[in-house]
Amino acid sequence: MAETTDIWRNAAPSGSRADMAPASAIKSWFLCEVLPLEASLMRFLQKSYRNRSELIDLRQDIYAELLKSAKIRIPEPTRPFVFAVARNQLIDRIRRERVIPIDTALEIGELEIAIDSPSPDRIVGARDELRRLNSAVDRLPARCREAVVLARIEGLSGREIAARMNISESAVSHYVKNGLRMLADVLYGASSGLGEQA
What we know:
With 198 residues, this protein is mainly α. It has three domains: 2-98, no CATH class; 101-139, no CATH class; 141-187, Winged helix-like DNA-binding domain superfamily/Winged helix DNA-binding domain (Arc Repressor Mutant, subunit A, Orthogonal Bundle). The chain has helices spanning 23-34, 38-48, 55-72, 78-97, 102-108, 113-116, 120-139, 142-153, 158-165, 169-188.
């Protein structure tokens, strides 16, 4: 908790607006309401984010965002707000990484648990759908799988995929189109042609 003392430099409101929370109220709120949640927040971050070396920085970013919001108005209730900020910080970091492995996507649904606690049926259903998608992607022919992953998961353009796979852009389009069609066949019950075309 030694790191938390550094964030007080930023806790005092920068302006003198009357509607801003006073620094003493922010500090009291943080110490009484936010810090007691640190253990559950860290468990949530450890479960949801694989890069353990960044967890302390991630926690500090969450605290900084909480204090920034508290300068304007101290949020109530505190717990849902803390986990909403944590969830948003996690999503921002995952987006910045751009590459989202499918097994990470399996855990993204769990980020909602701390905020709105979806039903167990909804959680199981979402995980089953992602497992089905992962299994279907694994069953694609190698070139189709590579093109689909580069296009739909990594977000590369046709030109970038063509350069990476050392093929033409029209071949990329063919592989992506066929791969998506095969995935749709498997996932939505149409006739499955998986493995028949490359």
